[in-house]
């Protein structure tokens, strides 16, 4: 079992895993070697009634066109990411290609932040060794940790959104 599948199967809910799988597919279709927080945020934003889109609309009574502008900014951010130099154009176009992008260090850090937030939410002290199978990262914590990433914050800022303001709304009790 790969680290990525273990992470998806053991540490995050099915809903969050679906978003990560969409981000992996996005990174793969773009020919990127790594899945980044920008891929995940873009995948979250693409869900019509998804949490990130809904909260962005609520964050400062945004017009749907502002959220569309945010989507476009994420597309630009994704297009600026480096391509996977190990894959040929033919393998990127080949749907049967077994090459899958790996999780970037920034995305792994986001998962760790989300897991720490989830553990804290359930009252587990940080220094207590707790079996990780008892706690799964939910979409709210994943969104919050993705919004903490500097690359995502930068894209949000470019579109006129405050990632910290959006995060505060997401994590409201």
From TrEMBL:
Q: Where is the Clp R domain?
A: 7-173
Keywords associated with the record: Repeat
> What SUPFAM superfamilies does the database record attribute to this sequence?
Double Clp-N motif
This protein's name: Clp R domain-containing protein
């Amino acid at each position: 079992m790969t680290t990525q599948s273990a992470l998806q199967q053991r540490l995050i809910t099915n809903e969050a895993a679906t978003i990560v799988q969409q981000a992996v597919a996005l990174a793969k279709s773009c020919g990127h070697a790594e899945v980044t927080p920008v891929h995940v945020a873009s995948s979250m934003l693409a869900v019509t009634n998804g949490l990130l889109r809904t909260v962005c609309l609520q964050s400062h009574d945004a017009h749907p066109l502002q959220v569309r502008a945010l989507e476009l900014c994420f597309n630009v951010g994704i297009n600026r990411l480096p391509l996977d130099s190990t894959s040929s154009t033919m393998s990127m176009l080949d749907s049967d290609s077994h090459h899958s992008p790996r999780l970037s260090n920034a995305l792994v850090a986001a998962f760790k932040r989300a897991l720490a937030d989830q553990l804290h939410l359930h009252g587990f002290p940080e220094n207590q060794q707790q079996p990780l199978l008892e706690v799964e990262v939910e979409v709210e914590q994943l969104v919050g940790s993705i919004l903490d990433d500097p690359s995502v914050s930068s894209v949000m800022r470019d579109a006129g959104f405050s990632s910290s303001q959006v995060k505060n709304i997401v994590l409201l009790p």
